[in-house]
């Protein structure tokens, strides 16, 4: 039995609002997809995304670019070479160019495989759960997330995100343009992965 001195301190509950969002079939509303799109569209200050598989469709890419164009800081963190799905990584990298040109900051984690799935918007909204930033996760897989409007939680997640960025490498548009021909060819195979439904 633990003594009083060694018992963990339990924080009192906050006053945030939350909702659970699942994307279990046959429910075809793609609630997680709608949630992500609405939060990205509503961002005014910042968007921080951590996803092991980052394969947003054209609509979500456009929304990220619109957020950057209106002055929001948009940062995306993904695995680097330590990735359990190399083809998915190459498919993700295929999207970097337009995002980088539009002011989105892209980082690749260097310390190992990162599998966190987090979206933080304006230091207020946080979404954590099992959904990746891709259509397979939005529409095919059984996923569950919790979206919470609470600034203290968002600040904690932002601190964790910053710690992960310190172990990451920023990708530049020049580096992306110089990627090898083999990577470009293999990335086209990633389209097959994206279309599995």
Report on this model:
- The structure is a single chain.
- With 197 residues, the chain is α/β, with parallel strands linked by helices.
- It is built from eight helices and ten strands.
- The protein has helices spanning 31-42, 58-69, 86-94, 96-101, 135-139, 151-165, 173-177, 181-194, and strands at residues 17-22, 46-50, 54-55, 73-79, 105-109, 118-121, 125-129, 133-134, 144-149, 168-170.
- Helix 3 packs across helix 8.
- The mean pLDDT is 81.
Quote the average pLDDT. 81
> How many helix segments?
8
Q: What low-confidence regions span 5 or more consecutive residues with pLDDT below 50?
A: none
| Rg of Cα set | 18 Å
Oligomer: single chain
Beta strands, count: 10
Question: TL;DR?
Answer:
The chain is an alpha/beta fold and 197 residues long. It has helices at 31-42, 58-69, 86-94, 96-101, 135-139, 151-165, 173-177, 181-194, and strands spanning 17-22, 46-50, 54-55, 73-79, 105-109, 118-121, 125-129, 133-134, 144-149, 168-170.
